[in-house]
Amino acid sequence: MAVCIAVIAKENYPLYIRSIPAEHELKFHYTVHTSLDVVDEKVSAMGKALVDQRELYLGLLYPTEDYKVYGYVTNSKVKFVMVVDSSNTALRDNEIRSMFRKLHNSYTDVMCNPFYNPGDRIHSRAFDNMVTSMMVQGC
Amino acid sequence: MRDPNNQLHIIKNLKISVSNIVTQPPLPGAIRKHLSDVVSISQPAEGLVANVITAGDYDLNISDQSIKASVPWYSNWKDTLMELKESTLYSATTPWFESYRESFLQSMPASDHEFLNHYLACMLVASSSEPEPVEQFLKLSQEQHRIQHSSDYSYPKWFIPNTLKYYVLLHDVSAGDEQRADSLYEEMKQRYGTQGCYLLKINSRTSNRSSDEQIPDPWSQYLQKNSIQNQESYEDGPYTITSNKNADSSMLSLDGLDNEVKDGLPNNFKAHPLQLDQSSDPASNFDGADHIKSMLSIHETKKMNTGILHGACLTLTDHDRIRQFIQEFTFRGLLPHIEKTIRQLNDQLISRKGLSRSLFSATKKWFSGSKVPEKSINELKNTSGLLYPPEAPELQIRKMADLCFLVQHYDLAYSCYHTAKKDFLNDQAMLYAAGALEMAAVSAFLQPGAPRPYPAHYMDTAIQTYRDICKNMVLAERCVLLSAEILKSQSKYSEAAALLIRLTSEKKHALRCYCQAMQVYKGKGWSLAEDHINFTIGRQSFTLRQLDNAVSAFKHILINESKQPAAQQGAFLREYLYVYKNVSQLSPDGPLPQLPLPYINSLATRVFFGHDRRPAEGEKQAATHISLDQEYDSESSQQWRELEEQVVAVINKGIIPSNFHPTQYCLNSYTDNSRFPLAVVEEPITVEVAFRNPLKVPLLLTELSLLWKFQPKGSNSKDNEETKELVTCGHEMIGTEVISEFLINSEEIKVARLKLFPHHIGELHILGVVYNLGTIQSSVGLDGIGCIPGCHTGKHPSNIMSVRGRQDLEIQGPRLNNTKEEKTSIKYGPDRRLDPIITEEMPLLEVFFINFPTGLLCGEIRKAYVEFVNVSKCPLTGLKVVSKRPEFFTFGGNTEALTPLSPSASENCSAYKTVVADSTSGATALTSSASSVDFGLGSQPEVIHVPLPDSVLLPGASVQLPMWLRGPDEEGVHEINFLFYYESIKKQSNICHRVLRHTAVICTSRSLNVRATVCRSNTLEGEEGRGGNMLVFVDVENINTSEAGVKEFHIVQVSSNSKHWKLQKSVNLSENKDSKLASREKGKLCFKAVRCKNFEAAAQSSEKYTFVDIIFGNEQIISSASPCADFFFRSLSSELKKTHAQYNSLATEKQSSDDAVRLIKKCSEVDLNIVVLWKAYVVEDNKQLILEGQHHVILRTLGREAFSFSQKQEPPEMGLLKFTRPENTMVPTKPTVEQLSSLIKTSLQYPESFNHPFHQKSLCLVPVTLLLSNCSQTDVDVIIDLRHKATSPDALEVHGSFTWLGQTQYKLQLKSQEIYSLQLKACFVHAGVYNLGTPRVFAKLSDQVTLFETSQQSSMPALIIISNV
């Protein structure tokens, strides 16, 4: 279960960001924001040719003392960042990958909503519930 | 050069620094000033802008705190930063810092613990032109000795006691005697040895500048423009000249790249990371030379010194000579001297080492305590540990290290420094230890080939020691600068930056970094982070006393739609208030600051002119007028506008003046605010300001009031205006209401109403609001956000912290969209709602309604009273009322005062004017007449003149007038708008009139439904035959549905009024004489109507109406008087209006129809109006009330049913839209059959029964008279056909048909209104019942070609009984 899940637009402003312990919200924001550098590095390191067939899942971006930060970038350069408690060893790479895939699907659903303006903050209840389920899951 | 171990050591690129002897150390203040000068000189002219590196989209501001906003993208930025790092630009960005660094290092005063910038040798210079140069040398030498060894002079520090002295004889080639110079030189050689003296021949007098100008100033590279030394030598000029000596100390610098030993040659300024340019000042030497030379003319010297050009007199050969001289000095004098000294020191050390190694160090350990006083016998023991005397043996090693360092023997230097460091540390001589550490690190760095890694921790320790233990910030700074350069050359930029940052005030840098980080987060939606940064910026700025920045940073947190929790917001707000308070305390007299909170929705600002509405007092009900409580409704405001236009048109004889604008008492965003509104002096102006609190914490505004600017009329000077602005409490001009407390809860929208009371005429400008912003301290903790210290100290009992500030009200007008230019661009019109013009006094009317009902039956008449009060100091006149529903009310006719004037007296009185009638006169009609003009109905029935006594209402006066109301005929709730119009007696240019609005709400319930038809009576009576007579049938139905309440209706009277007709008598069909109608009952009344011939002539000319009352009770209601006639005429006129509108819509048709049709139509028209007066018995609260009322029926057409209340028309079904053009068919309109049939009225006169003895005579002849009367106004041709119609087969079946005898067809012409009787004979053969109505009458207008021939009479059965006798 993630402690913080964020969806970041192509232009690096947050579309959606949610974290569980509310008192550390600011810290998570900073964590997510700094992780964007790593995402950027990883994506640009791949080079132009590889971009097309690259995998969306970027893997572990960087570990901090308490948390692990994972990243995922869609083809439209929308970034998903997930912060996971590093004490949680049950979460393997595969689980994280599937969580990201779920997140991506849900995000796609949000985008399919004709009343949603791309670029706006996400206020979808379905998306919210999905994120909540990922955060609570296994807790 | 050889080192102590006799190994050859190559010195590269040695530089020699030569300077004048100055006996006073430079003052720290002077140094500081010099440094700041240096920095400011290297600042580019535009200052900050050039110091901004634009990296990607970010502006990295190097020199200042100002934040440059931009919309960046991070990775771009990173790329550019990488580029920057590699580009040369990178090193060139901070010229000020480089020059600062140079100057700083140069201006280091020599200190005791190190010897690097102590003087190593002394050059003694004398001119050959002097009379006794040798004497001079002697004197100089003594002087030098005195300076070095006497205790008078502490400042110029000397490296070792026996300083190398180098004697230079300066000879001017052009002027001096060369032989003498040579001989002198020889003498010197003998005395001082060849290594110790030199003859320098240069040209110093002639200035063959023309040729020399090409030669660049040889000293320019070495001279510092404003070097302290220069200045000092300058000030101490006289002294220098007298002493006339030049000490030089040699310092070194080296450049690993250049192999030549250079001095006078242009040295390269290549950016070496560690360029210790301390030595770049050999010029002072020649300053000295100049001094010598200029002994004759001091002024010249000074000029030379300050002048830009040095050494202008030198020729190229002179340059070479100088170069040679320096070389000679270095190789012959200086280097051997250094070599010697090093060797000496080395020997000393080795000899000492034996001791220290074996015994000394041991004793040191044993007697470590006792050693300290031994060392510093009479020295002060300061924080830096102990101080050694200058010649202490511990210092010797340091001396040696320094020397080695100077001659670039870094290897040896390092080991010496290292040992020195150990010793010093052992002795706890921290200052010395730090110096040794520093230099050890530097020499380790400079070691070629770097056999050992750079000991960065040495530097760190040194810095720390300097700073924390020795408290010597200058040395610490030097150390940091060196260290930073070293780190930079090792590409350890971040470490270098960290060092520099640590050195300076960290807060400032933190602030700047936050400001730059702000650019990354700004406007990106990272709101929490943005808030956090803003908060930190605010707090840092505050601690650095940059209050303005702090305020603006806090402002940002508060005004953005914050997503922070409430507690956090509260903390932000409190901190903001605290900072703000500090700002305002700093400048208590400054202009009030603009506050960011709460938000003001300036578009929603409403302005109201006038007093608040008075609450109802008992029965009195004030006119609703207009108030801020009412929502704006464009429909109703349009209605009011129309009403005002109507009344203004009436006043101005039907024309609305071009400058007319509807009066606006309440201005909002929907009203037309392009003109300056007018306010009346002494009447309050209320401004409603819409506040919104975006925060989750409540905001408390205290002492909230309006801010305004007033320009009294007549004073146009600007200054006057300005002064008035500040006098917000100038109550003599404008009174300002202050709201003492105004609380806006979290995320609430709340309006505040603020009043101004203008006491003078002029132009008022409402600028904004001023208030104390505060918050209520909530009990919620601060949640990890520590408050600024002192935040809590001001805990006064109310727990409210507040600051005073203002917010301006700026209202943007509507967008203009009229011209093409306006359409293509975005322009906004002015909005003047806050800039009223205060005008002179105007009358002010207040209207109260007394006994004004809220519920009525349809058609009910009720009497109420209206009170008009003039509350101003001006008399008012021309009072009028205008309403869309004039049939609703009346003030009575202007004929007489009819009823008691006080409302209390009329309590039980009937609303009508009545007289007791003769009970016997039941069915008779009482006639009277009146004209509509008597009841105040002009061409505009909507505008009603209020009959004020004397037509003027004086100040303070009040008048009560009766007012009758009639419940509208429609059931339901009615809103009736009254607009009272009045004027001042004095004519004014600005305001011509004023208005007062009232909206009455009346709920009506169903009462009676009256239907009436009129038809011709067939009887032709002799006396009234002319003009004919008619029967009027009136159906009255009680349609009241309320179970309780109304019990029954009584028809008390039926009146007619018409110009031509009158009711004659009641034809009682039923025996129900008192005509009671219980619920759902229906009654039928029948009346006979005749033409009123006696009034005929008069009526047609003067529009007089004849009123006829037919009474059923014992009281006659005079229907021709108020209020009955009032309402009748009003309903008539409104009815007329309706029909008129209908006619207008058929206008084209009407025109095309010819006269014939009109004539034909006309004969079926009547204009009879029936008024049914009733009483209703109502039980209400166990009390029986009698209500009165009247219904009107307007009869126009014969035979057509008319209603008291026009039946609700079914809304027409939505038809399909047709997009075809209707064909303009020119079909001549034909009068309808019905209309034609009423042209001629026929009636048969015959005996009802006829006895005939058929057995005697088989044929029975009955005379029948056919009466034909022409109803039209023209001649009519009539054809009478007596033949039976053979069309219907039944007719043949008739058993006993009869025949007309004689002529079967007649052709007649009837004149207008003529009655013709035709004698006919009918012949019967059997007894029986016959229908005589068989004659068919055809009529046509005689002067018309087209024949509208129609059977006139749908044959009514005219039965005759023939009986056999």
UniProtKB/TrEMBL annotation, chain A:
A GO BP entry: endoplasmic reticulum to Golgi vesicle-mediated transport
GO cellular component, one term: endoplasmic reticulum
Entry keywords, A to Z: Cytoplasm, Endoplasmic reticulum, ER-Golgi transport, Golgi apparatus, Transport
Homology family: Belongs to the TRAPP small subunits family. Sedlin subfamily.
UniProt-annotated location(s): Cytoplasm, Perinuclear region; Endoplasmic reticulum; Golgi apparatus
Keyword hit for Transport: yes
Principal location class: cytoplasm
Keyword Cytoplasm tagged: yes
Protein known as: Trafficking protein particle complex subunit 2-like protein
InterPro entries: Longin-like_dom_sf, Sedlin, TRAPPC2L
Protein origin, superkingdom: Eukaryota
Gene3D superfamilies in alphabetical order: 3.30.450.70
Automatic annotation (TrEMBL), chain B:
Protein name stated in the entry: Trafficking protein particle complex 8
Domain of life, source organism: Eukaryota
Domain TPPC8 second Ig-like positions: 858-996
Organism: Vombatus ursinus (Common wombat)
One Gene Ontology cellular component annotation held by this UniProt entry: TRAPPIII protein complex
Pfam families: Ig_TPPC8_1st, Ig_TPPC8_2nd, Ig_TPPC8_3rd, Ig_TPPC8_C, TRAPPC-Trs85
Entries under PANTHER family matching the protein: TRAFFICKING PROTEIN PARTICLE COMPLEX SUBUNIT 8, TRANSPORT PROTEIN TRAPP
TPPC8 first Ig-like domain sequence ranges: 629-857
Coiled coil: none
InterPro entries assigned: Ig_TPPC8_1st, Ig_TPPC8_2nd, Ig_TPPC8_3rd, Ig_TPPC8_C, TRAPP_III_complex_Trs85
TPPC8 C-terminal Ig-like domain segment(s): 1239-1341
Gene: LOC114031804
Taxonomic lineage from the root: Eukaryota, Metazoa, Chordata, Craniata, Vertebrata
Residue ranges of every copy of the TPPC8 third Ig-like domain listed in the record: 999-1193
